[in-house]
Write a structure and sequence with these properties.
Helix content is about 15%, strand content about 20%. It is α+β, with helices and mostly antiparallel strands. The strands form 4 sheets. It has a 5-stranded antiparallel beta sheet, with no helix packed on it.
Amino acid sequence: MTQTTKVSPEIQPQKRPKVSEQSIQCWAHSQTGKRCTAQVKSREGEPIPIPYCERHLNSGDGALKTVNHPFFGKALVARYDLPAKYRMAYWGKRGRCSACDVEDRAISYYPPNKITGSNIDPKIPGGRTLKRHNYNGVLNPGGTGDVIQYAACPGPNEKQNMRSTFQYFGLRNGDLGGLEFVTLVPVPKNTQLLHWYGSGWWEERGIKRADVGTKRYPAPLRDAPVKKKRRREVDDDDGTLAKVDLKELTKSIDVEWARRDEQSDQNRKSA
């Protein structure tokens, strides 16, 4: 009996929706890799809606799955191979920010321009509308079908393979809001999806940062640091400058001093 190898579906990166579109195709894929064909329209008069149909708002993108982690509760992994620039949306109910010991999955919400649907505003210093005057509460994924909330933060020996683009969805003072995330590199099947929480996140909660990758659900590792040899410019006999490895230079000096000490001892014995 011939065994067949299960081939991972070929997934194409989705395009970011435009405010000019009356409806947009749902970003989600099925568990077998088929793109959802449902069309999504504005829910509250927002310029660009959260790009998931009602079904996938409740169930999450089938290209992703949440799994139990042996140490950190739940983790988010790729159900099958994902390409770079694969788009995902974190989403939740807009409201006030609770203390982190009560709810620790919410993110700050900065609604996009209600006309352009963009978080880019050339009139504001820095270009982005992520300024204090634009803060509009937080997005809380609790009680929703959002799965991006389970994406972990990379540990000291790991690196992120997804990040937020600071493109928000929704409407100021609306009920729902979302934030776009995108994969930075191709993500193999069963690999964890990780994004950077911020340098102060761990310290503020009194938690020691740790690696999250496991044998079954690995995490992308940081490149091993390349040790550079310390080099210094010294004068050659002809007065030109030459770059010398300090370790080798020190070794040669030690050898020379040992040779001189030995020669000195021989001279004293022969005297």
